[in-house]
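the two lines:
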Amino acid sequence: MPHVFEVGELTRSIKDVIESEFPFVWVRGQVVNLSRPGSGHLYFSLRDAEAALAVVWFKNAQGGKALAGGGRYDPLTGEVFETSLATSLTDGMEVMVAGRLTVYAPRGGYQLVAELVQEMGEGRLWLEFEALKKDLAAKGYFDQERKRPLPPHPTRVAVVTAPTGAAVRDFIRIGRERGHGAEVRIYPTLVQGDAAPIGIVRAMLRAVADDWAQVLVLIRGGGSLEDLWAFNSPDVAKAIFASPLPVLTGVGHEVDVTIADMVADVRAATPSHAAQLLWPERAQYAQRLDDLEMDLRRTVEALLAARERELAVLARGLAWLSPSRRLVRLEESFAATRERLDRAVLAWLDGRQRRLDRASEGLSRRFGPGSLGTRLEGLFRRAERLVAAGRLYTAAKEQGLAVGAARLAGLDPLGPLGRGYSLTTVTRTGKFLRRADAVRPGDNLDIMVYAGRVRATVAETAPGNGEDV
Amino acid sequence: MSEREESFEKALEKLERIAAKLETGDIPLEKGVALYKEGMGLVAACRKRLEAARLEIAQAGEDGAVRPFEAEAEAEAGDADGDG
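prediction for all of em together
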C-alpha cells in the first residue's frame, strides 16, 4: 500500500525541497496586487507573461538597518538613499527582487521572501555584483586550477570572524567534537557594515603575517543580503585571492551568493560546515582505530595458523624419514624375505626327498636290499650337508641385515647411548677413549651417557688389539 | 602541541602500513608477531591521544598579542545550557 501523507507532512516535505533547492534567487518581474497592511510588511506578486510569484517584503528588510532613521544605503558604494523603494513601490513597476523561496504552510503556498528590491532601471547592487563577478572571472579568481586543497587535519587554524555571535560559537562547538586536537586562533573583525570589508582584509593580513596558521577560515552567520554584502567587496576578494594560506569560507546559509565564497579555495555552506570540512569526526578516528585493531588481530591469527599448518606438514615428512621408522620398514621387509627363503629351502628339500625315494625304490628293485643300505646312508649324509648349507646361507643373510640395521640405528647419535653405550673422553687429552693403553690408572675420564655425564677415574687397564671384544 | 598532534597522524599512517604489511601474509612469523605487537601499541597510544584531544582557542589582538579567547567561557556556558 502506498504511503498516505498527512497534509502537514507533505507540506513539510515540499518546504524542505523548495527551501534547500532555492536558498537564494534573483527574480525580475512586474509588481501586481501590492498591499500595505498596518504591520508595515509589503505583499505583492511578481508577474511576467507566463506566471506569477507571491512576494513578501518584511518591514525589517525594507530599510538599511545599520543606519539610524531607517534610510537605505548601498552596501557596495556606501551611498545613502533618501527614501527606501518600499515607500515608493507601486503596481506595474518593473523590479528585481533578491531573496529566498519559502513555503507558507497555512495557505499551502510558496512565496519569495524579499531581501532586496530594486527598480530594474536602477538595479545597481545586482549590476555591481555581476560586473565584479565578470571582472574577477576574467582575471582567473574563480579558476579551479588555482584552488588549493585544505591541509589534512590542520592543527593550527586562523579564524577571521566576529568574536561574538552564532558563527564563531557554532564553529567552536562543532570543532570540539571533531579531529584529534587542534589550536584555533580567532582574528576578530567587524563582518557587517561599511567598515567590514577593510576590517576583514586587515584581520586576514594579520593572520598571514603571524605565519602560524596552516589554513585561514573566513566565517559569518546567516543574515540578509545586505548583512553579507561585505563578502561581495572587491577588497575581500583580492585578499582571499592573494592569501598564501588556503582560505576556507563559510558565509551565511547559502553557498552561491558571495564573491568571497567563489574566490575561496574551499567553500563551506555555513560556519558549522566549515568546521566539518576541516576535521573528521572524532568518532571516525575511533572507528578507524577499532578497524585497524581488528585487522591486526585477524591477520596475525591467519599468519600463525598458516605457519602451524606448514609445521605440521614438515613434522609428518620428518617422521617418515626418521631412522627408527626406516628400521621398522626394513625389519618388515626382512621378515617377508626370510619367510620366502624358508619356504623355498623346504620346497627344494622336499623335491630332493621325493627324487631320492623314487631312486631308492628303483635301486632296490634292481640290486636288492643289501647294497641299498650303504647307498642310502651316503645319500642321507649328503642331505644333511645340504640342510646345513641352507641354514648357513640364511644365517649369513640374517647377519648382514642385522649389521645394516645397527648401522642405521647408529646414524642417530643418541641412539647408541639410549641403548646403554657411552662416549668416553680422556679429560687430560680431550680425545675419545678407544684403546685401553691410551690411559693410565689415575687418569680422569668424562663419560657421556644417554642422560647426563659421569666423571670417573681409571683403576686399571687391560690393553687388547680391538678385535677380541 | 603541534608536534605531538603531527605524530598522531604519523602514528596512524604507520599503523595503516603495518596492517597492510601483515595483510600480505608472506612475512616470517617472528617479524609478523613483532609487527603485531608494535601495531597494538600504536592503537593504544592513538586511543589515549584521541581521548585527550582538545580544541584550544585563543584570540589574536590588534597588537599581535595572543590571549585566551574571552567569548569562549560565555559560549561554553550557553552551550551547556542549550545541550545539557
